[in-house]
Structure formats: structure tokens, C-alpha cells
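User: Predict the structure for this protein chain, please.
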Amino acid sequence: MVVFPTRAAPHKSADIVGTGFAIDRGPFVDRLRDYLDAEAQAGTLDFRSADGQPQSAAEVAEQFLGMICSQFLWSQLVRTDFVPPNPTDAAIVDEAVALMLSRYGTGS
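Assistant: Here is the predicted structure, written as C-alpha cells:
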């Protein structure tokens, strides 16, 4: 995990994060989207909104990443006292997976 020096120059940190995040996340999001799409095709996931409308695997991938990033990325940008969790602690990702499965899992 990269920790940016937000106290020294917060505006520059935001620019660095925005640029780096846009460059680095594309291939990862594509792989995640493809994986989620394959699971939907296999019938193990069903991507529907709360009102029953179909959602794309790309939208669900963004939701999943949003749950994880909200606890890592934004905390680093907003809180000067933020200490990242131990990299071996998978609790945040495990919780995001559990939420996704409870929302979109078909039980198959």
C-alpha cells in the first residue's frame, strides 16, 4: 500500500492518487469484471439492482472495489492519523466479498 504525504502538500497528493489510480486500476478492473461476468454466466451470481433491474458486471465490479477502497484510499487522503491495516489482515476484503455474495449470490 502506498502512503502519500498528505500533510506536506494535500493538493499534490490528491493529484498523484488520481493519476496513479486511473493508470493502475484499468487492467485489474477488467479482470474483475471478466471474472464477475463469468460467474453470472455460470449462474452463481445475479446482478440486479434493488428494484430488480439488471446491472452489468462492470457496475458490480465498481461497487466491490468501492467497498474496499473506501476503507483504504479515502482514509489516507482525509485522515492525517490514518494507519493502514496489516497487509495480511484480509478482514476488509472478506467483508466486501460476504456483502457481495449476500446481495448477488444465487446459492448455486
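Confidence is low (pLDDT under 50) at residues 1-22.
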